[in-house]
Structure formats: structure tokens, C-alpha cells
Amino acid sequence: MALHLLTNLTAATLTDTGAPYGMIEDAAIVIEGSQIAWVGAKADLPSQYQTAQRHDLGGRLVSPALIDCHTHVVHGGNRAIEFEMRLNGASYEEVARAGGGIVSTVTATRAANEDELLQDALLRIDTLMGEGVATIEIKSGYGLDTDTELRMLRVARMIADHRPIRVKTTFLGAHATPAEYKDRDDVYIDEVCIPTLRAAHAEGLVDAVDGFCEGIAFSPDQIARVFNVAQELGLPVKLHAEQLSNLGGAKLAARYGALSADHIEYLDEDGVKAIADAGTIAVILPGAFYTLRETQAPPIQHLRDHGVPMALATDVNPGSSPLSSLLMSMNMGCTLFRMTPEEALRGVTVNAARALGLSDVGVLAPDHIADLAVWDIKHPAELSYRMGFNPLHSRIFGGQL
Ligand code: DI6
Ligand code: FE
Fold it and tell me: Alpha-carbon distance 238 to 259, whole Å?
């Protein structure tokens, strides 16, 4: 198997080396096939690797490739006109009457065929990959009927055939109630959401199950009915919880051993304890907070105090977070929520992997997949510090140099 030796680099391994970021100065990394075989100080390189093909990285910084663990990157259309209407003074009702809001994205997604959805998503995927992303989670939830939910998930899977990127899919049938089921949320859950989940699972399209637990979406009881089916099918769950109010969504998620509780601006300390006990990851989504001009920040200090690992993601979607930059999410996490640059980098690597149930990516360590990002920077804090500046030099996916 091809053996490659990367030298003249600083490694931000994000493992427990005792140094911040798990940093190793003057490091070497050995890649064997698609895996990392060895990482350490170059002076300690075992003799069997001395003959590997050498690559001088010119003193650059190497981190694990980035992971965007919460996205709605597959969807039809966009909502720029509604954005403009609102900034010209239109009220929420006027926007809604003009067909705006999530309904407009559902209509556009239903109208788009597979290829249109794919080509549109690839534009955003390419932007994310250009910043070093090698793993992405993609949700359904803008179809809200069986055909379109399945189409979204098939397109999500197809992305990995068109680009060197790893995709994890999430079924989000409980995202909103479609117009044809208005005021019949329970009927929608029973007649559409749950049968569609079963169909998607039968087709091998589902890696996890999500819901939107909110006053404007679904109640904890309704989400629990979907989660019961997920459990029966052996699928892990995650939840949009406490984004706009506190309905106890994160506690519900914790009861199901959820991989993650996402948004959580309104999560209280009790809820933090519940997810801490369940080993649930907190996914912080500053793009939505920014776009919605929210004022309540997530309970970062409580999360730290209770040892809850924090991930960070773009939440890229056409309504509340039209953000296709994970580096910008890192900056926002730091500036808006006072996360540290190290927490931000852990949030888009090791903790993002955990939010997806992955244990073979997200750190630079032996026996992990060789997904690496090589950066034209000296210190990892630079990734969170600048805005609108992309220092990616190169991306290594599955050991492909
Ligand atoms: N959280 C959000 O902020 C949105 N969905 C969700 O689960 C918004 C979706 C949209 O407006 O398109
Ligand atoms: Fe979301």
C-alpha cells in the first residue's frame, strides 16, 4: 500500500497531547492507503517510515479536515426576494401572503427534479469543500411528502458520487406541516412523516432521524412518536431543540440517547444536565442566530461546566441560515457566543464527528481516515479570527494526495 510521509508542518491533532489543540510542532504524519498510520514529532518518526514518499508542507498547519454536522444543503430555490421584501419594510404576514417562508422552499423543492436539486446543492458543497470540509450531514425536510423527501435523500447520497466528500443523511420529515395538512399536524405525522421514514429506511437512505421541536413546528409528544419509530428501526436521533423557546426538546432527545441537540439558545441548566448525562453533543448554529437577529445566546458556560462537548455547524438553509461557510460559523461562534478558537476548531472536527456518530474522522490519530486540511497559517486561532478569508492550501480526502 502507498506510504506517504508529510513533513515540515505543525499538526493540530485535536487529540490529548497535553498541548492546546493537541498541537505538535515540527511534526510528521504518515498516511498508509486511506488511513493515518502515524502522527508525532518528526524526531520520533519510527525507522520503518523513513523510506515513505516524502511531501514537504512548507511549514504549514495541518488539521483534521472539517466536518459540517448540520445542514439543509439540498433544497429548491432560495428566499432572496423575501429577504429583500422584509428589508423594504414588508411585515411577516405580507411575506407569508406572498407565498414566503418555509412553504415557498417546500414548493420549490417539490418542483425541482433530482438533477436540479443536485446541481444547485453542488454549488454550496463546492464552497464548503473549498474551506476544507470533507464530511457533511444533509437533512431532508423540505419535501414533506413521500416522493420529495425520498428525492432529497437520494440527491444527498448522490453528492458523494459526484464529489470527494463523505455524506451522512438525516430524515427530517418532522420539520414543518405542509399546507395540505394545515391544522392537522398529528395526521401529517401519522399519515406522511412516519410512513415516509419507513420507506426511506427501507431504501437505505437514512443514517439518523431529526425533528423540529418548537411552537411553530412540532410538540415533544409528536416528536416522540417519530423517535419511537426511529428506535424501532435502530436509527439514532438528533433534534432541533430550544431554538426559539424552551419546550423541553433537549430533555426529550436525551431520553432517546440522541447524538445531538441542535440550536439550544433557550436551553436551561436542567436541560444541559440532561444532555450531559446522555452523552448528547450540543450543536451550536450561530448562522441562524445571526440571520434571525436573535438575542438569547446558547448556554455556553453551562455546557462547559457540565462537560457537554460542543460542535459548530453552518445550518445552511434558505430561510434562517443562508450560510455556506464553516469558517464564518467558527468566527461567529467566537464573536457572538464567546466560544474560544480551540472550542470552535474542536466544534468543526472532533465534536462534529461525534454529533454524527463517527469515530474514524475528526482527529489526526493512527487508524483514522486520512482526511486532512492543510492551511496557509501558523496558528489554528487564525481559522476563527479572520472573516471572508480562506487560508486553505489543500485538502486530503481519504489519503488521496
Ligand atoms: N430551524 C430553522 O431555523 C429552520 N428550520 C429549522 O429547523 C428554518 C427553515 C426555513 O425557514 O426554511
Ligand atoms: Fe437546521
Answer: 5
**Separate counts of helices (H) and strands (E) for the chain:** 16, 14
What does the pLDDT look like over 338-379, one tens digit per residue?
A: 999 999 999 999 999 999 999 999 999 999 999 999 999 999
Tens-place pLDDT, residues 191-231:
999 999 999 999 999 999 999 999 999 999 999 999 999 99
- Inter-residue contact 95 to 83 (CB < 8 Å): no
Whether 353 and 361 have beta carbons less than 8 Å apart is answered as yes
Ligand positioned closest to the Cα atom of 316 = 2
User: Which ligand is located closest to the Cα atom of residue 175?
Assistant: 1
The verdict on the CB of residue 319 being under 6 Å from ligand 1 is yes
Cα of 183 from ligand 2 centre, angstroms: 23
CA-nearest of 269, 242, 268, 244 to 253 is 242
Best mutation site among 242, 320, 323 for ligand 1 pocket (most ligand atoms within 8 Å of CB): 320
- Name the residue at shortest CA distance from atom 6 of ligand 1: 212
**pTM, whole model, 2 decimals?**
0.98
CB 105 less than 6 A from any atom of ligand 1: yes
Tally of residues, the chain: 401
